[in-house]
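Need a sequence for this fold. Nothing fancy.
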């Protein structure tokens, strides 16, 4: 995963030692810094897996969301809510996916103000192939067994819930 040789020591652990000596308790700083570094590692792995499919993680998530929907289409507003994105971001994602022929916009049958986004057969094929690629690299989440992944999901979920990310 690393693009360079690994360091002979953990720089976050060393920063935590120095923080504790000079500032005070370092557990929160070390945990947050570790999460941020792991985010970089995961994004790098996922981006590399998705690059051959000409997808970003945001576009991949949108395709997965549409492929999971019963009708293979959703209103743009619903996409934004479920992806937790600003409407402008959803529009940009859909624009790129539509330009690549992976989704199409259609009028909503009962709400003239709404637009539906529907995944195309090419989009379904692309998301299937991209999913094989990201799962082949375990989304970059190496070093944890199933129990560790479940614990990580639980711990991160607690932070997300306490921050008001969901109820």
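Here you go.
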């Amino acid at each position: 995963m690393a693009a360079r040789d690994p360091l002979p020591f953990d720089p976050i652990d060393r920063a935590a030692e120095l923080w504790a000596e000079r500032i005070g308790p370092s557990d929160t700083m070390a945990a947050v810094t570790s999460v941020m570094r792991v985010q970089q590692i995961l994004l790098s792995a996922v981006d590399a897996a998705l690059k051959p499919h000409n997808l970003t993680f945001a576009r991949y998530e949108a395709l997965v969301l549409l492929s999971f929907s019963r009708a293979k289409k959703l209103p743009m507003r619903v996409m934004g809510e479920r992806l937790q994105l600003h409407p402008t971001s959803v529009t940009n994602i859909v624009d790129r996916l539509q330009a690549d022929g992976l989704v199409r916009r259609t009028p909503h049958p009962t709400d003239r103000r709404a637009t539906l986004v529907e995944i195309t057969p090419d989009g379904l094929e692309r998301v299937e192939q991209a999913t094989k690629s990201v799962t082949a690299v375990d989304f970059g989440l190496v070093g944890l067994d199933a129990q560790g992944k479940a614990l990580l999901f639980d711990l991160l979920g607690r932070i997300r819930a306490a921050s008001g990310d969901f109820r």
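For context: The CA atoms of residues 1 and 45 lie 7 Å apart.
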